[in-house]
């Protein structure tokens, strides 16, 4: 029986092998340079939503954090478990906007990351997701969201989302913007095609 495809994940299962190798070779420190100063300095509880290959989760784990890595695409999640067997990473099959499995754990996080994820949700799902994300944060906890701007790869499902809209949506759920920056894609082909990213950091005030 064919697996039910989670909204927004079109094209990833079919290209998982190629994308896995590609994503694992990203320079995470370079990609995170504009925002790394806003991440927790001491060991903390982190939720990485749309963890993909687990590269970001592993980067956090290597800095002493405990990470719950949510990934709905099995073709990423299972190899990620093998590639990153660190004890302080827990891979979970769950997805936006509801995050039902995470909600059942009654856990609160110091940092929630959505790196190259938000653009896969339509407006209705973004509204639901932001409320659920906010409810999973500790007071003073932070959310990192990156927004992709530019052409959509063939076979994928993405929406063009403005930083202004995202900031306003976050504000309605008690999240205050503390950082915004614009960067080029770290992938040469995407840079050539004019792809850029907005990096946003929010802090919970509820």
Throw out a few tags for this protein.
single chain; 206 residues; alpha/beta; Rossmann fold; 7-stranded mixed beta sheet; 7 strands
Could you provide a short overview of the structure?
With 206 residues, the protein is an alpha/beta fold.
Overall helicity: 25-40%
Topology-level CATH name = Rossmann fold
- Shape call: globular
By CATH reckoning, the class would read Alpha Beta
Tell me the CATH architecture: 3-Layer(aba) Sandwich
Which H/E pattern describes the elements?
HHEHEHEHEHEHEHE
Helical run tally = 8
- Read across the widest sheet, the strand sequence of neighbours is 3-2-1-4-5-7-6
Provide the domain count: 1
**Can you give the mean pLDDT?**
93
Proportion of residues in extended strands? 25-35%
Radius of gyration: 16 Å
Which homologous superfamily in CATH is the superfamily?
Vaccinia Virus protein VP39
Give the total of beta strands: 7
Uncertain regions spanning at least 5 consecutive residues: none
Q: Report how far the terminal alpha carbons are from each other.
A: 43 Å
Structural class: alpha/beta
Largest sheet: 7 strands, mixed
